Amino acid sequence: MRNLGHAPRLAAAALVVSSLGLLLWAGPSSASAHTADTARAAGSGSTAGADAAGTVWLCRPGVAPDPCTSSLSATVVPATGQRTTESPAPASAPAFDCFYVYPTVSTQKSDNANLKIQPAEIGAAVSQAAPFSQDCRVWAPMYRQRTAGSLAKGLGNDPAADAVAYKSLLAGWTDYLAHYNDGRPVIFIGHSQGAAMLIRLLSGKIDSNPTLRGRMVSAIIAGGNVTVPDGRDVGATFKHIPLCTSAGQIGCVIAYSSFPQEPPADSLFGRPGQGVSLQSGQTKTKGLQVACVNPAALGGGTGALTPWFITSTAPPPPPAVSTLWVIYPALYTAACRKVGGASWLQVNDIALPGDTRPVIKETLGPTWGYHLDDINLASGNLVNDVLLQEKAYTAAHH
Predict the structure, then answer these.
(1) What is the value of pTM for the model shown?
(2) 66 burial class (0-12, 13-18, 19+ CB within 10 angstroms)?
(3) I need a labelling partner for 229 at 20 to 30 A (CA). Which of 34, 316, 338, 378 fits?
């Protein structure tokens, strides 16, 4: 019998699951011994990463411990056959930077979180951002995100708290740009609330600035409801930044939300003007569709996903593995779909009978789909997408 869920993740998620639509990412913060060790090394509740400008860096190149350069040791677990181990390492002196914005993880009692680094933020960075260290130096500022309790009151009911979150993130970006970027090309990565904040940042500071657009290699905006006019690849959310439509295209956006079927009418993702759209101020619906770019096939069609999961959140069938990560090849395919006003990344389980590897499910219900796993389902694909974009960027600028 197949294991139809991530039991350790469910235990963590039980803290604050709400039917009111809070965007809490139930990450592996304390489920992984490695992540717990990183948290202890950083000092739970620490703001020791603050620089001269006052930015507290969750991830900052050259400063240890850095969760975004965590171990990438992984066990590849096929349905049948010999398991293998991979040990990719962070890129050596990469020419590119990644700017990562983490999803909702804070359970603090206030409407906006403070800037203290907690195990939850570290867990998100390890699980979502660390794989990209193969491509780039990863920068991740702490920001005063809306907490789970604030979002439980309603996604669009507190624009003041959203403004505080964005102002805080903008301060981190401004510091990075002024003191650390040095003209380097950048890949933006955000999920959920992090995606909403990136939408604000890109639309407000990058989209209308040709110089900064020229430094943008790409942006990965998962679970954020980027919108475009029906049938087009640019417009609406961004006026100049298009969706990615081919492998190696640069200056474009990879945006999607994962579901196993058509998102319901009250879905938080995949439908314009509702759900997560409200956190980035996107309320228009007429003539618009939520963008879907398949990370497994940027040019369209169906592609095989290469998921990377923290082993403790999706343990394989016996025998146990000792690596931090586990990879399940030939378990999912993905393709973009558009039906009834919704557009989404359709994720299909393609395992054959007798396959005992764990599979994801809609942990928080159909309005969320596979939101909690948006990034991890396609981590291997996204890392490869960025690598190809970096090669194209280098060729275009030399």
Answers:
(1) 0.91
(2) buried
(3) 378
